[in-house]
């Protein structure tokens, strides 16, 4: 069974029981002052602004008992899973693995690497530490989703043009139907967010679909009113 969710470029076929929510990298390192994003000179308040909508999205999936996946961009403490080129790149005053205001940047277990308090995973939800931009590379998410019978993914998180889009493209290549919630994703650069969304929905949804949270919520409420 599927039901349509109004979306671009055409309605998304939502499959209850076979759809998981993926919340990409809503971690302190990217969203709060003193983290990795802030060290690069970015305005982190842009990312902080999507927390309320993302929280509503997570709550919707929790109420329906549909799977929720949280990712964190995170490296092992010895940085053995972080290419030297990634550490060297850019001219930030603090680099991956160095000590910042919230511990070592982008390192597993550090305070800054945790999901922001208002979106913290609850018992039973899936948490994936990914060493790259995409959620599939060098992680065990594929067999986890397969074991749950997941065929459709709803995406939220940051940043739209980097880790979110990369993860959607990886998922698309693996045969998942992907929907991005436009007001539950953000970029440090507003123009990058909009361009990324246009790339995703172009050519008949070459990567996937996009819609605001209100459209998804209304469609779920209508379709499952008597469920």
Task: Give an overview in words.
- 35% of the residues lie in helices and 21% in strands.
- The chain has nine helices and ten strands.
- The chain has helices spanning 28-31, 36-39, 45-48, 51-64, 84-88, 141-147, 160-173, 190-205, 213-223, and strands spanning 3-5, 12-14, 19-24, 68-73, 99-100, 103-104, 126-130, 152-158, 177-186, 209-211.
- The strands form three sheets. Strands 7-4-3-8-9-10 form a six-stranded parallel β-sheet, with helices on both faces. It has a two-stranded antiparallel ribbon with strand order 1-2. Strands 5-6 form a two-stranded antiparallel ribbon.
- The radius of gyration is 17 Å and the shape is globular.
- The model has no long low-confidence stretch (mean pLDDT 96).
- GO terms for molecular function: hydrolase activity.
- Residues 19-207 form the Isochorismatase-like domain.
- InterPro entries: Isochorismatase-like_dom (IPR000868), Isochorismatase-like_hydrls (IPR050272), Isochorismatase-like_sf (IPR036380).
